[in-house]
């Protein structure tokens, strides 16, 4: 697409509207905007709110792909609106809805409470068998570079919820733990400093846990940070099977980081995680 064509291009925005104070009725309202080069979808929404309709509701904060609050369903795909330029969408008409698989709070703002609840359910912190250690630490909890290298790709999650909104299993099973939480379960369970595998098993090895995932990778395709939750979930299943078969040693996860796991590859089309920013 040439630069000339993108300068001040007139674009129609079809925006989903829902006001809980007015009952269950929903509608689509159209706005037209001249879109200059470089304008993001979020910029366009802010411009519409400031200049055309101050009743429009949506959520955003950092405007730089860090806080994870501006996820919306844009032309049929979940994406961070602050990281998506209008011109990238290659369309003169852009339809924006709140993220699917969540309730809608108002207009384009989805209620991400279930995402955060699922995240909390997998105990997203380092767990030690001796809980008293936290109050009376005996020294550093060491982690090898190899261990950090392995889990690093799964640590980028900014809890934007796009993966859950793309997941077909979550669409049919609201109790499914979901890609975000399961990927984070794997991230913590494979951390050499963690000893919480058994506690987390109660959540992830349950009726609505990791076995409901059928590895379609929709979650990974839309993740803006290259976390690849689908891969993490399949590796999580592997660890559970190994432990069930007692092929893996009990104890710190680092002890079972061997062979095939390190050869695990991303499916074609799944974005890579950013490179490590620490030595
Ligand atoms: S895994 Fe990716 S898509 Fe899912 S919440 Fe984390 S950053 Fe967002
Ligand atoms: S790979 Fe699993 S978690 Fe990801 S979208 Fe598919 S079913 Fe959902
Ligand atoms: S506004 Fe923070 S990620 Fe988009």
The description of the largest β-sheet is: 5 strands, mixed
What is the 3D shape?
elongated
Say which CATH homologous superfamily of the largest domain is assigned: Alpha-helical ferredoxin
Count of runs of 4 or more consecutive helical residues? 11
**CATH domain class name of the largest domain:** Mainly Alpha
Rg, rounded, reads 21 Å
Strands side by side in the biggest sheet:
2-1-5-3-4
Q: Could you name the ranges where pLDDT drops below 50 across 5 or more consecutive residues? A: 1-6, 252-260
Task: Let me know the number of strands.
Answer: 7
Kindly describe this structure.
It is a single chain. By secondary structure, the chain is of the alpha+beta class. It has 2 domains: 3-110, Beta-grasp domain (Ubiquitin-like (UB roll), Roll), CATH 3.10.20; 113-262, Orthogonal Bundle (Fumarate Reductase Iron-sulfur Protein, Chain B, domain 2). Helices cover 31% and strands 14% of the residues. It has 11 helices and 7 strands. The chain has helices at 3-6, 41-51, 113-121, 145-152, 162-166, 168-172, 179-189, 197-204, 218-222, 229-244, 259-262; strands at residues 9-18, 26-35, 71-74, 77-80, 93-97, 104-106, 109-110. Strand 6 (104-106) and strand 7 form a beta hairpin. Helix 7 packs across helix 10. The longest helix has 16 residues, at 229-244. Bound molecules: iron/sulfur cluster (2 copies) and FE2/S2 (inorganic) cluster. FE2/S2 (inorganic) cluster binds at residues 60-63, 65-70, 80, 82.
